[in-house]
Design brief:
The protein has 213 residues and is α+β, with helices and mostly antiparallel strands. The chain has one domain: Oxidoreductase, molybdopterin-binding domain (Sulfite Oxidase, Chain A, domain 2). It is 14% helix and 29% strand. The chain contains five helices and eleven strands; from the N terminus they run H-H-E-E-E-H-E-E-H-E-E-H-E-E-E-E. The strands form two sheets. Strands 1, 4, 5, 8, 9 and 10 form a six-stranded mixed sheet that branches. Strands 3-2-11-6-7 form a five-stranded mixed sheet. The longest helix has 9 residues. The radius of gyration is 18 Å and the shape is globular. Bound molecules: the ligand Nc1nc2c(c(=O)[nH]1)N[C@H]1C(S)=C(S)[C@@H](COP(=O)(O)O)O[C@H]1N2 and molybdenum atom (MO).
């Protein structure tokens, strides 16, 4: 009894927090982190596309006005960056990935998606991770529109995976019948990116975690 109380007092706050995945530390404030320049939003030419193996075979497109009118949801989730910081309790507002899947259904044999952002940044996800009930295309955080540095007008948020799996400045979703690596997944990061299993790097991949090639 007395000893376990003693051990609890000795535990550092980060280690005691059950919300913190292994190897992560809590972050105050919201850092800006991405590869390459911040894109300028061009409202007249911006569109959000769903292409690839759609059920109809056709591409679906929403302009900014149409995307802004889609049904909305709110999700509270933590953000885990593979560089080891975690931000707790972000309240994201936006369009559920499930809404996009309903409005632009995939063909029955789709297993993965590639989410594409400005300048060719991409990230691949298993359809089940993309379709998770907490995955959303966020336009707001804490009730405020995203700033351009943080992904305005739209970023993908997948709270149960490392944050690189959520592109800022999303422009398209590609439905795929086989897995293919995205931007960081081609550059040494884990194909699946589950922070609770500490899937940081591709050398940690087990057979079946990634595409064969
Ligand atoms: N388009 C794009 N999206 C991106 C990235 C990027 O390099 N390009 N980096 C990812 C990584 S590694 C992290 S940790 C988060 C950081 O989001 P933030 O800058 O809003 O904190 O964006 C993710 N989305
Ligand atoms: Mo990150």
């Amino acid at each position: 009894m007395g000893q376990s109380e003693h051990q609890q007092q000795g535990a550092r706050p980060g280690e005691a927090d059950p919300r913190l995945p292994p190897g992560q530390r809590p972050q105050r404030g919201w850092p800006v982190l991405h590869y390459g320049p911040v894109p300028r939003f061009k409202p007249l030419t911006w569109e959000f596309q769903v292409f690839g193996a759609t059920a109809s075979g056709a591409k679906h497109t929403w302009d900014h006005e149409e995307f802004s009118a889609l049904p909305r949801t709110t999700v509270v989730g933590d953000l885990h960056c593979v560089t080891r910081f975690t931000m707790f309790g972000n309240e994201w507002g936006g369009v559920a990935t499930r809404t996009v899947l309903e409005l632009a259904p995939p063909a029955p044999d789709v297993t993965h998606v590639m989410v594409w952002a400005e300048y060719g940044y991409s990230s691949n996800l298993r359809l089940a991770d993309f379709a998770d009930e907490r995955s959303l295309f966020a336009t707001h955080r804490g009730g405020e529109p995203l700033t351009v540095e943080h992904g305005f007008p739209v970023r993908l948020v997948v709270p149960h995976l490392y944050a690189w799996k959520g592109p800022k400045w999303v422009r398209a979703v590609e439905y795929m019948r086989a897995d293919r690596r995205g931007f960081w997944e081609e550059r040494g990061y884990h194909n699946l990116g589950d922070p609770w299993r500490e899937q940081r790097y591709s050398y940690q991949e087990q057979p079946g975690d990634g595409p064969e090639t």
